[in-house]
Specification:
It is built from 8 helices and 9 strands. It is an alpha/beta fold and 355 residues long. It has one domain. The radius of gyration is 21 Å and the shape is globular.
Length: 355
């Protein structure tokens, strides 16, 4: 008797392999997944790229530079500055010396400061008689000698950030955290908690925010509006969003770190999905490539946070397969694993403050 099952139409009947878990994940080579990422717009060798975000964004920025992309770096180290200290002092990490920008709220705050919508207050923290910029406390490991030095360096930094925003054609931003420490009185947010790298923690002054979906989405859309003000036109800049696969080091909430980490990444991924519906915003799936259960090995080092360089290389191969398809990956045999892979991350330091 003829099997009539195939005579019936259903919405899954003629879908491609990528639409099914078995053919799209189980049967795929996790190092060469087909149809996972399709670029939304072109990036040429002349495209001016600005990169910022959380710790994982440092990997992306370095790979782009190694492979000949035109990455803006307008806050370079002084002549003769030792190569071994570049990362420790925030140089050559991103497109300006802003250190890690973990949250969208932190990014929005920076953009508002750049165009004068926000005037920073009480942003100088102290430690051991040295002065620190609370918005980027790790870029001067030994601190500054005076408050005037902090002000002077910040003014110079903001002028460079403004130029970066004005000059860039594509902005690549890696979202890292939903948890952010904030000042209760002026709503300023910081990349690290006061009392860790510098400053003093006062619970009556500082609070931990854990942003929700709507808040993050609104913050990013407002960032786009502010970006238009900075560029003196409607924002024609293309944006590529990624979500960092690196888990939280610690949580300030009264819950297990695993719950906080999964919440953070889930919300950020949902926001990224919504934002990518904008024709000028592309989503690159670095998060999915690292957390793919098809991998036959752990994508992380033994601490289960540091992404292995082989994993990072696989992530970026998927990016270059779309944006540089006809050129050899790592031209001139330059391998990222042979370069300085030290990634600076304030969040990682939190483990040191556990008693």
């Amino acid at each position: 008797m003829k099997n009539k099952k195939n005579d019936y139409q259903n919405p899954y009947k003629n879908l491609p392999n990528k639409s099914f878990w078995k053919s799209g994940v189980v049967d795929e080579n996790p190092l060469n997944i087909q149809s996972l990422y399709k670029k939304k717009f072109n990036i040429s060798e002349n495209t001016r790229i600005a990169a910022a975000g959380s710790c994982f964004a440092q990997h992306i920025c370095k790979y782009l530079k190694l492979n000949g992309f035109n990455v803006i770096d307008n806050e370079i180290a002084p002549q003769g500055f030792p190569d071994s200290l570049m990362s420790a002092y925030g140089f050559n990490m991103f497109s300006s010396r802003f250190g890690n920008i973990y949250s969208v709220k932190q990014l929005l705050q920076l953009a508002k400061e750049t165009c004068g919508l926000v005037i920073p207050k009480d942003y100088i923290w102290m430690k051991d008689n040295k002065f620190y910029d609370a918005f980027r406390p790790s870029i001067e490991p030994g601190g500054f000698d005076s408050e005037d030095d902090v002000h002077r360096h910040r003014d110079f930094h903001i002028s460079n950030v403004k130029k970066m925003f004005q000059d860039m054609d594509v902005f690549i931003f890696t979202m890292g955290l939903t948890q952010t420490w904030a000042n209760k009185y002026n709503n300023q947010v910081y990349p690290s908690a006061p009392g860790t790298i510098a400053g003093k923690f006062n619970p009556s002054q500082f609070e931990l925010l854990n942003s929700e979906y709507d808040e993050i989405l609104n913050d990013f859309n407002e960032f786009i509006e502010v970006l238009g003000l900075i560029r003196n036109k409607s924002s024609d800049c293309k944006i590529i969003i990624t979500v960092s696969p690196v888990p939280l080091t610690a949580t300030g909430l009264d819950e297990h770190i695993l719950l906080s980490s999964v919440y953070s990444k889930s919300v950020l991924r949902a926001v990224a999905g919504k934002l990518s519906q904008n024709i000028n915003i592309d989503y690159f799936p670095s998060y999915e490539l690292v957390t793919n259960p098809r991998l036959n090995h752990s994508p992380f080092e033994d601490n289960l946070r540091t992404v292995k360089l082989s994993t990072v290389e696989n992530v970026m191969k998927h990016f270059f397969k779309e944006h540089k398809p006809n050129q050899e990956f790592f031209k001139n045999n330059i391998s990222f694993s042979n370069t300085d892979s030290d990634v600076q991350c304030e969040d990682a330091l939190l483990e040191n403050f556990k008693e």
